[in-house]
């Protein structure tokens, strides 16, 4: 096992326990205990996944996600002592792949990490076209980049994955459950509202000209318009 995991956690007892458990499983592990050191370490270490605490000195976990949106295929599991749904939704909106509340069972954290890495590996191995063009919105698969007209967009990993899944099969209707399973994984414990929130965010980033590229199929889910001729009616959540 050669996967690299970065642990960003300021509580020494917790970070030591996580690092010990990860190394026992064969992962290569680096640990930082200050929010301000997280992004430089991500750029240097290039981990496959990050276990990221929310409450950190210097810069909290949410700000780290905001300031480093172009993480490519780097997975993120957030840790927090806050149990309310608002904080969980915020982390997921900013691109986290999963969320665990302290105190947590180490076996569950390891299981979730393995599941996340399996999904990432499966996505990386799936053959895809090099570039997808949907009526002026272009997705470059290799770079995981999106350009709307002439404007490059900054999408979180989950926002990109959602848009790319719809774009590969324009016109195909996906239920919210199918999108949740495909993008977040079948073992993801959050609800389908996560899909709606990410669709809203992608539409906003696409801008007014392309905001209805993702169309709502009421009572079912979403589809990508096949082109501008298929984008006459704006369907909102």
TrEMBL record:
One Pfam family named in its UniProt record: Response_reg
Record organism: Paenibacillus campinasensis
SUPFAM superfamilies documented for this protein: C-terminal effector domain of the bipartite response regulators, CheY-like
Gene Ontology, cellular component aspect: cytosol; protein-DNA complex
PANTHER family tied to this protein: REGULATOR OF RPOS (PTHR48111), TWO-COMPONENT RESPONSE REGULATOR ORR33 (PTHR48111:SF1)
Protein name: DNA-binding response regulator
DNA-binding region in chain numbering: 129-226
Source taxonomy: Bacteria, Bacillati, Bacillota, Bacilli, Bacillales
Keyword NADP: no
């Amino acid at each position: 096992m050669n996967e690299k995991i970065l642990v960003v956690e300021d509580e020494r007892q917790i970070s030591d326990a996580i690092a010990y458990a990860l190394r026992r499983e064969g992962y290569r592990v680096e640990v930082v205990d200050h929010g301000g050191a997280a992004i430089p370490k991500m750029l240097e270490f290039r981990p496959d996944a990050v276990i990221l605490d929310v409450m950190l000195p210097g810069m909290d976990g949410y700000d780290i996600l905001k300031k480093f949106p172009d993480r490519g295929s780097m997975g993120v599991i957030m840790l927090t002592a806050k149990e309310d749904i608002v904080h969980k939704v915020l982390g997921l909106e900013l691109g986290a792949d999963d969320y665990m509340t302290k105190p947590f069972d180490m076996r569950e954290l390891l299981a979730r990490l393995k599941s996340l890495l399996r999904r990432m590996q499966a996505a990386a191995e799936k053959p895809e076209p090099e570039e997808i063009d949907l009526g002026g919105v272009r997705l470059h698969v290799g770079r995981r980049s999106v350009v709307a007209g002439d404007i490059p967009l900054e999408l979180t990993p989950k926002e990109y994955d959602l848009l790319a899944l719809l774009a590969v099969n324009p016109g195909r209707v996906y239920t919210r459950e199918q999108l949740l399973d495909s993008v977040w994984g079948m073992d993801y414990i959050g609800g389908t509202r996560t899909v709606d929130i990410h669709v809203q965010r992608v539409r906003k980033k696409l801008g007014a000209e392309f905001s209805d590229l993702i169309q709502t199929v009421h009572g079912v889910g979403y589809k990508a318009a096949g082109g501008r001729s298929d984008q006459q009616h704006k369907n909102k959540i």
